[in-house]
Write a structure and sequence with these properties.
The protein contains eight helices and eight strands; from the N terminus they run βαβααββαβαβαβαβα. It is an alpha/beta fold. The protein has an eight-stranded mixed β-sheet, with helices on both faces. It binds adenosine-5'-diphosphate (ADP) and magnesium ion.
Length: 236
Amino acid sequence: MKIAVCGKGGSGKSTVVTLLANQARAGGYRVLVVYSDESNSGLFRMLGFDHPPVPLMELVGGKKSLKQRMAQPSVLAENRILLEDISPQHLVEKDGLRLVSIGKILQSLEGCACPMGVLSREFLKKLVLKADELAIVDMEAGVEHFGRGVETSVDSVLIVVEPPLESVEVAQKIHDLASGIGVKNVWAIINKVPSEETATKLQAELKKRHIDVVGHIHFDADVFSSSLEGKIPEMG
Ligand SMILES: Nc1ncnc2c1ncn2[C@@H]1O[C@H](COP(=O)(O)OP(=O)(O)O)[C@@H](O)[C@H]1O
Ligand SMILES: [Mg+2]
């Protein structure tokens, strides 16, 4: 299964990706986390790695030449990519958890992020997973990536929603876009809820918009303060 974790900036996508990855690994899955958000690079620390993998973007010679170089010999030129095919330089692995990173904009003049979207989409499309393998994609914030078709290559979209209504509106857009392009499962998870009452209200708001809610996560002061160190504590 390939799950894209989407939502408004700061809603908790990377936190949810980390919790989900740890949970799935504990449940016996081989987990690949795909980092597809070029704006924030701390996910490797949250997942417990000492250093990030070399972005796949470097295999295609940087952003400017993406189109011409995608066909050059490398794992990305294959039609099917298995986890084993990705070199240790581009895939860091620890205790059954793997991380690959699509790439970041390193120079301010490089323009828009479209090539990252194209590379995410192509990589996810070609990635072949076995029954006990799960890919979890930490998507960039908002809905722009839908225009680049990144979600056409995933079977599930998990939308992280936090209390401000604005976040529910973004969730609605993501839900409609994902359903519109035929993503099989579109779910929401409510994050940072201060009370059961807020969770119930948010759940009702989402239900009104025909969005299935799979659960909620309380606001946790330890999670928040650990983020200062770029880490995430163990959660029950
Ligand atoms: N359940 C939670 N309780 C408390 N703080 C949270 C929770 N989930 C996320 N946060 C905090 O919110 C901030 C944004 O989370 P992050 O996962 O980086 O969001 P995103 O990836 O969507 O930008 C971080 O400081 C993080 O520690
Ligand atoms: Mg993030």
